[in-house]
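Ticket #4471: structure output looks truncated?

Reporter: J.K.
Steps to reproduce: submitted the chain below (283 residues) through the standard prediction queue, then opened the result file.
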Amino acid sequence: QWKQLENLYFREKKFAVEVHDPRRISVSRRTFGQSGLVVQTWYANTSLIKSIWVMAISQHQFYLDRKQSKAKIPSARSLDDIAMDLTEMGTPKVSKLVTLETKNQLIMASNGSLISSGSQDSEVSEEQKKEKIMELKKKEKFLQEKLLQKVEELKKICLREAELTGKMPKEYPLGAGEEPPQVRRRVGTAFKLDDNLLPSEEDPTLQDLESNFIIHQKLVEAAKKLASEPDLCKNVKKKRKQEYADAVKKLQEIENSINEYRIKCGKKPTQKSTLALPGERIP
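Returned output as attached by the reporter:
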């Protein structure tokens, strides 16, 4: 009878039903006392055993709901009312808590057991529960370390974006009470020379001078950007202005060398630096 049920559980290929039979008194190996607990066991493949266990739990829940409803149902009821109640009670949820009259019992989805105080497998279930908790704690620690690693990567990406745009993105992760770091925007001074820009002179000496002029012209432009950067301290700004002035002077010297060589070869001089860098002075 359902009222004698102590436990329903399955483990891999084993399905067991524990019932309390006062007519059969035995000595419990766990309590070393007299107990009327009788265990019936069946074996089959895991999927079949689990299906049997689910159906048994559902049937037991149906018994409990029906018993509870009988206590509330008045003596005179119509067949339609009874059919409606049976329909509502016929769809129990296996995952919800199952309570008996006098025992606090719980369905454990991890090991497929309806644990009660009289179960012979309650100690084993406690050990499995501890192992499961330890496993979940290890997994939690691993996920926390992974999360910290990803947060650091996100911070680096946000800092790089702030250096390029001059504005810290809102995705930058901040702790409680933490202020976003102050980042200065980087000045873009990189340049690339196109092969088509280099002059093609028959004279190799003049070719080298012209190539050197184009390269140094790019360096002057980069120095001008650095000297024009806002929010610089006085010493740094003064140093960069001097470097820019030296670069302009060097460019003028290269142009003078080109013109001297061109005059020597019977060609006309040029004025490249003044055309390429209008307004070379920094305000």
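Triage note (M.O.): checked the attachment and the full token line is present. The beta strands are 5-11, 14-20, 26-27, 34-35, 37-43, 106-108, 113-115.
Status: closed, working as intended.
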